[in-house]
Design a protein that fits this description.
By secondary structure, the protein is α/β, with parallel strands linked by helices. The chain folds into 3 domains: 3-129, no CATH class; 136-233; 239-429, no CATH class. Helix content is 50%, strand content 12%. The protein has helices spanning 3-28, 38-57, 69-93, 97-100, 104-112, 114-129, 167-170, 188-198, 212-215, 239-259, 261-274, 323-328, 338-344, 357-366, 383-387, 394-409, 413-429, and strands at residues 136-141, 153-159, 178-182, 204-207, 220-223, 230-233, 280-286, 292-298, 348-350, 379-381. Helix 1 (3-28) crosses helix 2 (38-57), helix 1 (3-28) packs antiparallel against helix 5 and helix 10 packs across helix 13 (338-344). The protein starts with a helix and ends in a 5-residue tail after the last helix. The relative contact order is 0.07.
Length: 434
């Protein structure tokens, strides 16, 4: 059974029982409104969204092969108990009428407990009779390969010492789920090259325990059941948290565009009056998984500023900067149009800054693990931006990469908020801009 089918059945089963629990408790109680009224439908949908949110937050939708059945049932019991307390307390504070009706709360608490029985039998059935799919992988090794890779199905073995081209090109004709890297510490550079290259893809990456001292500074790892290998986790943000991060980005983008529209309009007019040329400056940048997109900024330099030089970093007191540019750059007003990129999903408000394709290619070749920056959406601001200045050399790029990897390994909505607030303070102090 595939992961998608297992997840779909689990969510549908939960949803059906949640809806039935609400309808049954409504019918049993002394509420006079008919069960097919608009009020019931709206309340039922809101409660369904509430419980599914809690279940996902409590990590109750993990793959069956990654959990112990009784631990999950116990976690669901705790989630239901806490969820009921929160719901009942909020309902009484908000004076929601139907919750106060006699019989509703005890009937709802009793019927919703049926989820425990459903989960026990369904997840138990998966664990007992449905064996997890063997993942197809390619092993990169240095002649010290583990003979028994567990539940992995090895389709190809490639020596680390014989890598003469990009690892991804070696797998063009292989329909695989991930890669394994097995090494005793020899060919460390090749190990880093493989990890960095595959970090930009959707492949899962597994390493032997012997490589833990090599990778632990750059990524998180987790144990793989029925296998001696460790799975590399480039950032700890769950699928649900990524969804919430995206929702927050959309909401803030829409609100910001409305609130800042007078500033955006005034800045555009002043740029047009100041110097000839377009209001916006557009550049190709590299985003998530190496995908290119067009970044939009207010033009703060003369038109065709790189016509003779090609792509170069901006310098302090750069003579190409316009009069309006010298005003808007210290306050980062030139970055505001990137809100459109966030709304499109090409960027987030917080993340590693996106770089131009020509620079990315140079950095990939000269800076180990640079590709790990591409495992998350780029951002308007980031941990490196509040901890360091603009790039002026390769040493700056290396230093900022360490901050970017620190962010990726500790990414959370709380950290995003911290970075956002630090960015506001940095802009108010006019630090790090030129």
């Amino acid at each position: 059974m595939s992961r998608k089918v297992e997840l779909l059945i689990t969510i549908i089963g939960d949803a059906v029982l949640l809806v039935l629990a609400f309808l049954i408790s409504w019918q049993i109680s002394v509420i006079n409104h008919p069960i097919v009224s608009a009020r019931v439908i709206v309340a039922n949908l809101l409660m369904l969204a509430y419980w599914l949110f809690l279940f996902q937050s409590a990590k109750l939708y993990m793959r069956r092969s990654k959990i112990q059945l009784m631990n999950e049932v116990l976690r669901m019991f705790k989630t239901i108990a806490i969820g009921l307390l929160i719901f009942i307390a909020a309902a009484f504070i908000a004076d929601i009428g139907f919750v106060r009706e006699r019989g509703f709360v005890p009937a709802y608490a009793l019927t919703i407990s049926s989820l425990l029985i459903w989960r026990f039998f369904w997840r138990g059935l998966i664990g007992e009779y449905v064996k997890p799919k063997r993942e197809k992988v390619v092993i990169f090794h240095n002649n010290d390969v583990i003979q028994d890779p567990g539940h992995f199905n090895v389709v190809q073995r490639i020596s680390l010492g014989k890598l003469h081209r990009a690892p991804k090109q070696l797998l063009t004709n292989n329909n695989i789920d991930g890669i394994l890297i097995d090494s005793n510490g020899v060919h460390t550079d090749e190990v880093m090259k493989v990890i960095s290259s595959f970090a930009e893809t959707n492949y899962e990456i597994y390493v032997s325990p012997k490589l833990y001292p090599v990778v632990y500074n750059y990524s998180l790892v987790e144990k793989v059941d029925n296998s001696p290998f460790l799975k590399i986790v480039f950032h700890p943000l769950s699928a649900w948290d990524r969804f919430l991060k995206r929702v927050i980005d959309i909401v803030i983008s829409i609100v910001s565009l409305v609130v800042l529209s007078p500033i955006l309009a005034l800045t555009a007019i002043l740029i047009k009056i100041d110097t000839p040329g377009p209001v916006f400056h557009k550049q190709d940048r590299v985003g998530l998984r190496g995908k290119k997109f067009t970044l939009v900024k207010f033009r703060s330099m003369v038109s065709d500023a790189e016509k003779l030089t090609g792509p170069v970093w901006a310098e302090k007191n750069d003579r190409r900067t316009t009069r309006i540019g010298r005003i808007i750059r210290p306050y980062r007003l030139d970055e505001l149009p990137q809100i459109i990129n966030v709304l499109r999903g090409e960027m987030s408000f917080v993340g590693p800054r996106p770089e131009r394709p020509s620079f990315v290619e140079r950095f990939r070749k000269t800076i180990p693990l640079y590709g790990l920056r591409l495992t998350v959406n780029p951002g308007i601001t980031g941990w490196a931006q509040v901890k360091h200045t603009y790039d002026q050399s390769f040493e700056d790029v290396k230093k900022k990469l360490s901050f970017d990897l620190e962010y990726i390994n500790n990414i959370s909505l709380r950290l995003d908020m911290k970075i956002f607030l630090k960015t506001v303070l940095t802009v108010m102090k006019r630090e790090g801009a030129h």
